[in-house]
Design brief:
homotetramer; 233 residues; L-fuculose-1-phosphate Aldolase; seven-stranded mixed sheet; alpha+beta; actin filament binding (chains A, B, C, D)
């Protein structure tokens, strides 16, 4: 792959995920520092599509910017810092509220895998409900205890759904994360459309295991496609 | 915030709300005069997206332009003048027929809050039916008695649904109004999609109260995002 | 109104109706000659959006071009010529297969009026089934007997649905026709979305009569909006 | 028709089918060599919309490039080579996973013909399930035995659905293939929308036979329309 800097990757991911309807004015995506696992990159509080590389800040795993700044921060950045602490295998994280995923967060529906590309989400997508552990809240994950609870629920899965809220997706690399986030949403859309007409046929665990390992070339092919679709690509 | 004039804010809101599918060739948005509470700003009768600052007129609370003009006026401008009279706390109003909200105006469905951002609509969204008080009409709210009836139904809520017609939304500022109008529609869309699959989980009144107060920074973040999405932004 | 020529009006209508998802590569729109009621204007066979004024031909009421031409003609132009013969009050016609209207042509659903603007379609929208009178066909209306049967079914209504095929809409002017075609489709969309959730509230015949008469200013407002949305407007 | 080269036709088809939502970052389209039936043209592995004429390679019917190349190949190119071997009448092939067709691959729904243009898919669209013959797989068709099984299931039809995967469409020419792929998806969309409301009226076999033969002018009219819709057309 090219020697793209974390600043470039984070802003590209922000724009791609917005263009592909995963993010809108809200939601955020981060990546771990490539050489210092105790640091990660995330933008200041801003609509993801509008972020430039100058908006990408470096954070430590307590969730605070490494360099003091007067800029506003995402109130939910604790999701990222806690997950980077708990999951050493994770190098990129996206928290979103895509309309494709929300029906699974509202109705009594189980997210399954229905296509080869959708297998990127993996065999188990657990559901976390902030209300269960924390009672009545504004549904923002801003406290360490909430983020830890979310991380426990995620376990070693690739994605966790959040009741009445959205989803948090993790990846081994930014390309894998973007691929998983987008094709997770696409797979969700397809099964929603099909479920309108009754029972559907889904991938077995064995098939998910066989289909869900994507070579770098597959991730790159999709990445270049989404990149080409950016405004002013 | 910047020192944007009412004329700028009204035309920006018109364009944003059209771009985000709240308005189309019809519907309208107004704001109260910042220093004279007995006046408000609204465009002449025109498709909202096409209005320029020269199309923004100043009205008094009887619903008539302050300066005589030969220009055609919105037949439903009485909605705005009556609501500004009845609700001193309201500084901006949008009347729309968004496809996101119409199913709630046609089917026997209750609009709920299902996301943090959707809490902007508040705990109670009453339903007004012109037919109940006024019999067979063309469904345009053009008489003071109709507007008063609508205002009574709205009460101190943030939004009122209108049977077989649309919705009227109010806000303390233009930014709050635009945020509430758009995220109200987004929340409606999400619950419609989910309701296809049976019962859904919704916010409690306590959660709506906790989630529904948005800091100015949140409103501004969304405002800048929608502004960036305008044609020729 | 401006002194737009029939050639300009026909090409504008073609482009607007495509932009608003009434037409695609197929479907067609015509208008009667403003001074010679025995003539009408329609393009040669071409995707509507691609037609220029040079593609607009003059036809007589037998459905043949007034000037001989080597250009291919729409195979269904007989719909237009027969309707102009049968309905002296009609000055513009659109035949389309909009996805908004097709569910009413396939499922056992009755098209109703659910909004003020949708009242443009009028109180009765009859359903015509080519199969009933003509047995197994390719579903193109290419014979005079088929077009006459369609016209009989239309009667004095504003629109007729065609089973497994689409819709034919008529208007007193091009602006009225375009307004009726687009808001007919919008109204159909809204009721489809609402019908997913059970019974819906619809306009009464009296309300349709009250709402369905639109002043020229209303038609012009929508016309200018749609015109502004054309590519290279 | 113009003397367009296979390289031009393949890249145009790739772009049109992406623009019309048949392909996305995945899926592929090929055409047989116009003078050497033992060869066909397909791009290297790349998102279809991004392919230039330089990306179009010549393959033999074993599925290998005629000239050795270091470029990555589509892992499912065996679908094309086997179908060109088995179906001498076929000169163009598209394999896709369009969201319009996927509900038929997931739910217990039979694809029917509901419009004149949709008759392009023909009377029988068989369903192939890789799981039946090959057990648990990653759902990619990469082995000759799998492609042969798919071809057997297709038989002399125009299209075969693939359970939990997508569709493979064949045509006598590139124009016919593109027309069939797109209007097949459009017809699928229409029936899905209508099926939400219960039983629907569909074309009989006799009507499909009457409607499904399209003159070259019809294919060309649609082709020019889709071409005009390409970015930078």
């Amino acid at each position: 792959m090219s020697a793209e800097s974390p600043h470039t990757l984070v802003t590209l991911a922000n724009r791609m995920l917005t263009r592909e309807a995963v993010l809108d004015a809200f939601g955020h995506v981060s990546m771990r520092h490539p050489t210092d696992p105790g640091r990660f990159f995330l933008t200041r509080s801003i609509a993801p599509e509008l972020a430039t590389e100058a908006d990408v800040l470096e954070y430590d795993l307590s969730g605070e910017p490494v360099s003091s700044t007067g800029l506003a921060q995402y109130s939910e950045r604790i999701i990222h810092s806690v997950l980077y602490r708990m999951r050493p295998d994770v190098n990129a994280i996206c928290h979103h509220h895509s309309p494709s995923m929300m029906p699974f967060c509202l109705a009594d529906l189980k997210l399954r895998v229905v296509t080869q590309l959708g297998a990127a989400i993996g065999r188990q997508v657990p559901m976390w409900d902030q209300r269960e552990g924390f009672g009545a809240t504004n549904h923002l994950v801003t406290r360490e205890a909430e983020a830890l609870s979310l991380a426990m629920c995620l376990g070693d899965s690739n994605m966790v759904l959040m009741k009445r809220h959205g989803a948090t997706v993790v990846g081994g690399s930014m390309r894998e994360l973007v691929f998983r986030s987008i094709y997770g949403c696409r797979d969700a859309e397809l099964q929603l459309r099909a479920l309108t007409f009754g029972d559907i046929s889904v991938f077995t665990d064995e098939e998910i295991a066989l289909a869900g390992k994507f070579p770098e070339a597959t991730l790159a092919r999709a990445w270049e496609y989404w990149r080409s679709r950016l405004p002013n690509a």
